[in-house]
Design goal:
This protein is mainly alpha-helical. Helices cover 73% and strands 0% of the residues. It has 2 domains: 16-94, Tetratricopeptide repeat domain (Serine Threonine Protein Phosphatase 5, Tetratricopeptide repeat, Alpha Horseshoe), CATH 1.25.40; 96-183, Alpha Horseshoe (Serine Threonine Protein Phosphatase 5, Tetratricopeptide repeat), CATH 1.25.40. The chain is built from 8 helices and no strands. The longest helix has 30 residues, at 13-42.
């Protein structure tokens, strides 16, 4: 019977195996943290989702998915100023992404700052001309701006029947812009 002599592993193999394992485990853990925060948000538990996400995002200042989800959670919690800060920072770090501009526009539209919202939506469309949600939201913002213009015109000429009819049609169309996630 021949004796089997175990061959020694190359000294770099354990480190390579560890790196490969970490490469699989860490993203899975990150995805799991984000999925858990998203699940909590969908269940109406925004404060718990935010707490879960805060720990995740704290050590990763440029991590996009977690930061974006944090902005959405803050929007859900009606913490507009905090959400604006998050989406502004993301748009500064990733100016090529249309979604942060879109969500900033939604936040400014909620504050009745329609000109600012329009500018942000135009930025979103410039970065991604095929972004349908930004185009839809731009249409909604333009309807609101038109309505404001007719309000002012009617203040100046309250008896103008044509403007009254146009304003009534615009009020039927009046909708609120919609936030979106990262593609």
């Amino acid at each position: 019977m021949r004796s089997i002599v175990p061959r020694l592993l190359p000294p770099t193999l354990p480190a390579t195996v560890l790196a490969l394992l970490l490469g699989v485990v860490v993203p899975t853990a990150v995805a799991s943290e984000l999925a858990e925060a998203e699940r909590l948000l969908k269940q109406g538990q925004a404060p718990q989702a935010l707490a879960k996400l805060e720990a995740h995002v704290a050590g990763k200042p440029r991590e996009l998915q977690g930061r974006f989800l944090k902005g959405l959670i803050l929007m859900e919690m009606d913490r507009s100023d905090d959400a604006i800060a998050v989406f502004t920072q993301i748009s500064d770090d990733y100016p090529e992404l249309p979604e942060p501009y879109n969500n900033l526009a939604v936040l400014y539209a909620r504050k009745q700052q329609f000109e600012r919202a329009r500018t942000l939506l135009e930025m979103a469309i410039r970065t991604h001309p095929g972004y349908a949600l930004a185009r839809q939201n731009l249409g909604d913002v333009l309807v609101r701006l038109a309505s404001q213009s007719y309000d002012e015109a009617l203040r100046l000429e309250p008896a103008n029947k044509a403007m009254q009819a146009k304003q009534a049609r615009l009020r039927e169309l009046s909708v609120t812009p919609t936030a979106g996630g990262i593609r």
